[in-house]
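Sat 14:20. Reprocessing the chain from the morning session after the first attempt stalled halfway. Input below, unchanged.
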Amino acid sequence: MPRIPSKDEIKDIAYRVNIHLTDEDLDAIQHVFGLLMISYDALDKISDTVSHTLRASYSRSWRRPSPDENRFGAIAFITDIKGEDSGKLSGRRICVKDNIMVAGVPMLHGTSILEGFVPEIDATVVTRVLREGGYIAAKTTCEALSFSGGSNTSYPMPVSNPINPEYMSGGSSSGAAVAVAAGYCDMAIGADQGGSIRVPSAWTGIYGLKPTYGLVPYTGIFTIEPTLDHAGPMARNVKDLALLLEVIAGRDGLDPRQPSDLLNPPVKPYANLLTGNVKGLKIGIVKEGFEWPVSEEDVNKSVRDFALKLRDLGAIVEDVSIPMHKLGYAIWTPIMIDGTIANMVFGSSVGWGRGGYFEAQLAEFFGDAIKNRADDLPLNVKVGILLGYYAITRYNNKYYAKARNLAFDLRRAYDEALNKYDVLLMPTTPQRPMKLLSNPTPEQFLLMTAGMLYNTAPFNVTGHPALTIPCCKVDGLPIGAMVITKHFSDEKLLNLAYAVEANKITI
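Finished this time. Tokens:
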């Protein structure tokens, strides 16, 4: 039975929440605790049936990569997991970000504090890949607790860019992007709370899609902030991107991020919808996406020149102003910081107040790890924990609440523009890939983890699908153009990217 707290422990808890107790109160409370905790004891003796339905049904093995197999630091674990003999992904090598549970294979989530954690279940996306004949070749390195848009915070080593190893690959799905770009796998599944699929895809020259919120189930993936969590595909070509989306999309009945039974997310034959015909497609170049303090003029020019070349495909390309886009990052920040700390630190990685499947095994392991080993986390994660704790306790969750309310206005601003235009376009990141400094100062270290999310993060708040297209290079480094459309119209973005790829439209 869970241990009943001592009177001193009860008194300490009461002090922390500003409750004053008499000795008589303490006696009564301890007695009632004992009665109530009989229920907790009962739970310890029962196995939940949902976990059993997620248990692995395919043989598997894993090992850590050798240095020769991991030149860029992208591979966390090499796996040997073969799915069905036939299916849409038959013969294809798939990598999954190492915050996605694969039963029997360790999950580090980019940090040493999770050493020793081995999931007992497969994430829904993993099960779907295997059922369609995919071969899971590796779990890929990601940034520590997915808290960085750079690639300098991952354990046991940073992830360098295969285009030029002196530069970062972007994050937090850093290893997934590099594994695809370097040809280790055909496709990868990443996760995105502020740009974590799109930034590394842009900086390594591949395609990366953050699908419509709720289109792809997040069951069995480490929760960062439930209203921001997205999982999606990454690939070197658009057909593979569309095919992987087709396989992993759709309701699983376990993820509360997905619509209710009456509003199932529509799964479409995305790969078969790629016609390459974008004649008459109306594209709005979002003025504010080029106006950040960190925007680089050569990046802006290259992306704008790329957008104008889409007229050669028959698209209608015009400028559009969405002033509220400039507030998108400010709205995202307290949702990400305060919400993540509430769910991840206070809530032991699973949080509260939602339905769906809870990863209880992870909660127990990570909860102990974050209490006892927070000193081992990188500086940017410590900053997030400290700021989130301060904002929640000092301002009573005011800023999270206000930001979530402003999300309605932000979504409305984009939707109004999307009533006039089929697709919106802007740079994926305002700048080219950043240098991977070997011995940065604390301030440099923190700057390397942020500053690239200004355009990507707002669409995690609003849930619009957003796709990065490799469009150009600046000083030999890849640059991405990000396109956005209405909810559950992901195929429009895929078809535009397919037209670009088929016609070799680049700068």
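The longest strand covers residues 466-474.
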